[in-house]
User: What shape does this take?
Amino acid sequence: MRSRYLIVPISGLLILTALLPVSLSVWMAQRHASQAFNRELESFSSRVLLRTERVADQAEDALQNLEILQSTSCSGRHLLEMRRVAYTRRYVQEILFMNGLQPLCSSLEGTSTGEAFSPPLAMTPKGYRFWYTAQSDLGIKRNMVALGSARYVVMIDPESLIDVVPYGSWPINVALIGVKSHLLIASSSPLAHGIWQEAARTGQTQFRQNNILYHVTRYPDLNIATVTWASTVPLDEYWRQQLLYWLPFGGSISLLAAWLILRLQRRLQSPRQRLQDAIRSRDITVHYQPIMSLNSGELVGAEALARWQQPDGSFLSPDIFIALAEQTGLMAPLTELIIEQVFADLGEWLHQHPHRHISINIAASDLISPSLPTLLAAQLIHWQVQPAQIALELTERSFADPEISAPFIARYRASGHAIYIDDFGTGFSSLSYLQEIEADLLKIDKSFIDALEYKNVTPYIIKMAKTLNLEMVAEGIETPQQASWLREHGVQYGQGWLYSKALDKQSFIKWAERRSSS
Assistant: This one.
């Protein structure tokens, strides 16, 4: 789509620029306020988790130190050591020495007269026993968290697990809940009835009820969850404050966007549109890199390489615009343009040199295109060129499914076109493809030529090509030593900077004439 066709959509876009930023301002104000509110809830949940982990780590550390004590059970020295462990740990309220589930003595009371503990509610991921119990030698009915090893139990005030002060702009409450048991372990204020049950049933992480926003964070590894909540009344006031900020900002953006669109309307083309314009305007040209006989040193043909010159004079890499053409459905017109350009550039030259050829890269979609054979046949007839003078280069992607691609390849070969396999060895299934696809020539990728000094892969590729009766072209030859090694190992043809870079049509014809006369 050319720039002149963009007037209607740009006009519509100008209207949108007058309305959309203002609407977005209202949305952004609400979003910003909600995000700030949610961040505070999430941050508070994270801080509660850190506190819970710190308390749990301290309890586990106490149990580890207790298990290595060597004193006689419940002796005066043993009780003193238990008191020292409890005294030096902020969150440990009491330590019990156990025989199974029966307390024998306590860091607070000495000999224990308490009843046996019930079986633990759960086991922690590190293998400690967990209770939530009101059992105490002191005659006080207060729920405590108990964490036990083989012989000891430490008692922890559950309020210490959530003893975190919110730093934000809103009062925030928190509850700590056992996920599997649905046990409310600790809460900074009463949690509304049914809130956790609703969160557990729906799996929601955030919901609103009775002007209160609840945020649920689950920690599966610890089998706990935190529920943080706060009233939304301050949120509504904060949203109105944000709106006073975002509305003027949105109006300014509307004016700025309209001005920018008016200035840049001719540049508002997507990469696909730019490529489509380039194809229609025939801005994509073809350069030709010579292919030489390694034995005789004579020119035998050339590979056609697409080039797209940009307004600043640079050339966009073919890897970019060819990939774009494949992704956007423009590969067929691009390939047809390249074929037409090849014949327009070198049709007469090929007619005058019937023993030379041009190889053209085609993609997977081109292989099954019904219009491509017709175009090739028409160009061959028009320029009186033999089919053998146009070779088709296929990458491994072009025949990813041999059952589909093989019949089309066979038809091109039956029409007289040679089939080259390009970039061999850079895919995943080269050997399998070679066994299933009929081809005439194998192009050895430049990466293997660069590694000739190691001689660990290239000789096997050459041997395999000979076994399959395939001729070979080595790409990327840059030194006489590489050319000599390849010639000695039976590679017939080569291309690369040793001979010439890719040339435009006039430079290529002049280069070929000089080569023939020398």
Observations:
- The first strand starts at residue 92 and ends at 99.
- Confidence is low (pLDDT under 50) at residues 1-5.
- The chain is about 45% helix and 20% strand.
